[in-house]
């Protein structure tokens, strides 16, 4: 009896064909997914940052070790927690509640800056800003908004 010797290239092709067949059978089932959430990005994005009294961005990470995405997450979490306490939607939070959340967040960031002992100190007046970036008619439109301002 004689054995048929199969070359390495043939084994690779057999493995590739088996992989393709298995992928077609498994389809979009966890953990085998192509993550379709990345195939259709939103046409807008929000960027959170700290600014001084004139609205100029501050080096937030150097001051507080908090990144822009984390600032947005902290803010939304605090808004959602407060809205849950009030039994309302966080989008319907009263303005005074928003100011209280902003004030608490700025106090947290100031404490964080002091704790870290960063060389650059936060200015006396700080604003929490949110700039919405939207893609409209082939152009990027920036819409800055003051979330909270001291003073």
User: Segments where pLDDT lies below 50 for 5+ residues?
Assistant: none
Structural class: alpha+beta
- How many strands in all? 3
The number of distinct structural domains comes to 1
Order of helices and strands: HEHHHEE
Using only C-alpha atoms, the radius of gyration works out to 25 Å
Query: What's the helical proportion of residues?
Result: 40-55%
- The shape is elongated
Strand order of the largest sheet: 1-2-3
What percent of residues are in strands? 15-25%
Number of helices: 4
Averaging pLDDT over every residue, what do you get?
86
Largest sheet: 3 strands, antiparallel
Query: How far apart lie the N and C ends?
Result: 92 Å
Label this structure with key terms:
alpha+beta; elongated; 4 helices; 3 strands; 151 residues
Description of the molecule:
This protein is α+β, with helices and mostly antiparallel strands. It has one domain. 43% of the residues lie in helices and 19% in strands. It has helices spanning 8-26, 60-64, 68-86, 95-116, and strands at residues 44-51, 127-136, 139-149. It has a 3-stranded antiparallel β-sheet. The mean pLDDT is 86.
